[in-house]
Amino acid sequence: MNFDLSDDQKLLVETAASFAKKESPIDRMRRLRDDPIGYEPAMWRHMGELGWLGIPFPDSVGGYGGRFIDAALLIEQLGATLVPEPYIPSVILAGMAIERAGDDQQKKRWLVPMIEGKTAMALAYAERHSRYDVLDVATRAERKGATWSISGEKVFVLGGHNADHLVVSAGVAEAGPGGIGLFVVARDTAGLTVDPIATMDGRRAAMIRLDGATVGEDCALGEPGAAGPALEDVMDLASAAACAEGLGIARTVLAMTVEYLKTREQFGAKIGSFQALQHRAVDMFIEVELCHSTVIYAGLAIDDPDRDERQAAVSAAKVQLCQGGRFVVRQGIQLHGGIGCTDEHDVGLYFKRMQVLGALFGDEVYHTERFSRLSSFTADIADASKAAEQAANSQRVSAAGE
Amino acid sequence: MDLSFTPQHQKFRADVNAFIATAIPPDIRAKAEVDAGFDMPEIMRWHKILYQRGWVAPHWPEAHGGPGLDPTSRFILSEELEMAGAPSLSPFGITMVGPLLIEFGSDEQKKRFLPPILSGEEVWCQGYSEPNAGSDLASLRTRADIVDGGEGDGDFVVTGQKTWTTYAQYADWIFCLVRTDSSGKKQDGISFLLIDMKSPGIEVKPMLTLGGTEAFCETFFDSVRVPRANLVGPLHGGWTLAKALLGHERTAIAAVGMSQRMLRRVKRIAGYTVHRGVPLIENAEFRARIARAEIRLRALQMANYRTVAGAQLGRAPGPESSILKIRGTELHQEISELTMDVIGHNSLSWFNDGDVVPAIEAWVPQSFNYLRAATVYGGSNEIQRNVIAKNILGLPMR
């Protein structure tokens, strides 16, 4: 066991922290809330030049190392000032979907320009009825000769408003019931309608309609109809990434709040000297520490070959984010008092982003339920049922003997 | 960064489990399987078995009879023992006064007191709190007057009352904080004494805890004579020792392994308890509550791992370790409350009078009640929060 950062990781964290502070302070995000794109493509390219957009991808597709935990460390730092560039939508969601489901040629074709920051992508996975079950897909893809024709609607496609390519999930009838395919659809494809929307956290997304949008065979990622497990894995990566960003947010709000408690005076004293507020701040600190622990856990376990182990770690982290992370930002507002309730103060920006992160990729109820269906949780119960059965049998035997 | 244990540590875990499989006596194992509470004679029997194996005091240096285990191995040992439900040892000798003597005691004191602590020949209890000195420990008033031969270096005569002296009824010795000076700041007039419980003038009155067993005691001192040689550290210098001790205790009582065991139990019970044809574990509310508790446990376990990994590299406990006591004990309570809810009417039973509930549920009400103390002892969780507010967050004090 070792939780120390390597020298490379330390350098990455320091560089990212300094970038967030100097090149993208929170005011930048505040300003870009009113921009139709919501971020700056030039900054995206700059992040590509820094090598950041390639971190979770293997070297063979132009990536840098391919360790998810490194991306998580970066995302945490970007969370500290709410850097608005679409790292999770483009790199983690669409990028990792291509990485997990695509063949070598497809990876090179779409990942290389994205890693350089020349393109941005988005993953269209959510539908109105689907909540967090990414396998519950009504959008359909049909083979027509050497092409695929896709029809359906996708909602709240993160970063979809400005994506050059959309990775779209769709049911594939020829693969049988439950067969899911992932298709790369270029922005200018006929039959594709992208309606940009603003989201609560000051970012942008899109509602998307596909009306017989047609793509070539080479745009179906991997074996058509077999992308379900890859899509689920990508949701876990995105959950873990959301937890990392949430950790950066929680840390920042804690620091901001403690600072406020040390300077604000009421009743002739610093309000941080009041025990009720001290204990609240300590409870925030505890939740930050637990968020930190679960983010490390999820970030490392996500590479575990055992699917249940991965999912247990991710679900634990996501539940901790939804409970503990949200507690931190809610109390952050409370302890700032009136000013915290205004749009002028930054704490509200963090609060909104945390709320959104909690609602993405499975909420508290979804992950609690999923956690409770994994073998790591159910093993003890299975033992119990077996014991109960044995006890019942032995009673029956003894009753028969009497 | 790496989550896995080294091959050596994995082997050590296997060794610990092999030992546990054979070393726990059958009657103690039977009680462990139903998570029963252990009495002092059982605890001391287990103490002696661990002593024989050399594992009774994992954190003591080898020079004083410790096994020379590194922090990770110590953690593995305690985790596996907790998971197996083995009796937890009385901490007062092994965890508290022993390390303190190793750090602050004279050579004579070490030679006299350490071996019988290890072997379990002498049982210790703690004399800290008083009726009017609980969280505000420095307000203690039990007085130690020096019987002066003119040089100020005579024996002590101790008079006063200590409370929450857990297991004092079994103890051969008590370590006490006493007031030797009332002239200055209250922290500056406290000394640390070792007192023989057989001394004339000591009276012990056991108290029932909410759990229905006699763990706490009140201990009265009426002009008890204590040899000068039993003063540990400098005269009036006891507060430093007291603070060092609270630090030892905090990390020791997070007991994540115990939470893990309690969770396994509540899952088993919810698995076999059938209501309207469906096991309780399939009741959405119960299932979610249990899952949330297990998620909290995992988070705490990772915080614990981080502390252990830091210790392994020789670092002082970081901020993550300060939360262990608070969250560890809150989790014990949460799981015990949950278990009470799961067992329904069976939670009305008391020491399974009339033999009316399954053995695995028999101790649930007792431990639920006893565990109310978990957030109070070892520095109440509110005091822990004060400490974090001041030392980690740097918030101003009044």
Brief descriptors of the model:
heterodimer, A: alpha+beta, Butyryl-Coa Dehydrogenase, subunit A, domain 1, Butyryl-CoA Dehydrogenase, subunit A, domain 2, 3 domains, two-stranded antiparallel ribbon, 53% helix, disordered C terminus, B: 398 residues, alpha+beta, four-stranded mixed beta sheet, four-stranded antiparallel beta sheet, 12 helices, 14% strand
> What percent of residues of chain B adopt helix (DSSP H or I)?
40-55%
Give the mean pLDDT of chain B.
91
**Helix count of chain A, per DSSP?**
12
What's the name of the CATH homologous superfamily of the largest domain in chain B? Butyryl-CoA Dehydrogenase, subunit A, domain 3
Q: Approximately what portion of the residues of chain B adopt beta-strand conformation? A: 5-15%
Q: Mean of residue pLDDT of chain A?
A: 94
**What is the fold-level CATH name, i.e. the topology of the largest domain in chain B?**
Butyryl-CoA Dehydrogenase, subunit A, domain 3
List the uncertain runs of chain B. Answer: none
The biggest beta sheet of chain A reads: 7 strands, mixed
Short structural description:
The complex is a heterodimer of chains A (402) and B (398). Chain A is of the alpha+beta class and 402 residues long.
Description of the molecule:
Chain A folds into 3 domains: 113 residues, Butyryl-Coa Dehydrogenase, subunit A, domain 1 (Orthogonal Bundle), CATH 1.10.540.10; 103 residues, Beta Barrel (Butyryl-CoA Dehydrogenase, subunit A, domain 2), CATH 2.40.110; 153 residues, Butyryl-CoA Dehydrogenase, subunit A, domain 3 (Up-down Bundle). Chain A is 53% helix and 15% strand. Chain A is built from 12 helices and 9 strands. In chain A, strands 1, 2, 3, 4, 5, 6 and 7 form a 7-stranded mixed sheet that branches. Chain B is α+β, with helices and mostly antiparallel strands and 398 residues long. Chain B folds into 3 domains: 83 residues, no CATH class; 113 residues, Butyryl-CoA Dehydrogenase, subunit A, domain 2, CATH 2.40.110; 139 residues, Up-down Bundle (Butyryl-CoA Dehydrogenase, subunit A, domain 3). Chain B has a 4-stranded mixed sheet. In chain B, strands 2-3-7-6 form a 4-stranded antiparallel sheet, with no helix packed on it. Chain B has a two-stranded antiparallel sheet with strand order 9-10. In chain B, strand 9 and strand 10 form a beta hairpin. The two termini of chain B are 41 Å apart. The model of chain B has no long low-confidence stretch (mean pLDDT 91). Classes of the chains: A alpha+beta (402), B alpha+beta (398). At the A-B interface, helix 7, strand 9, helix 8, helix 9 and helix 11 of A face helix 8, helix 9, helix 10 and helix 12 of B.
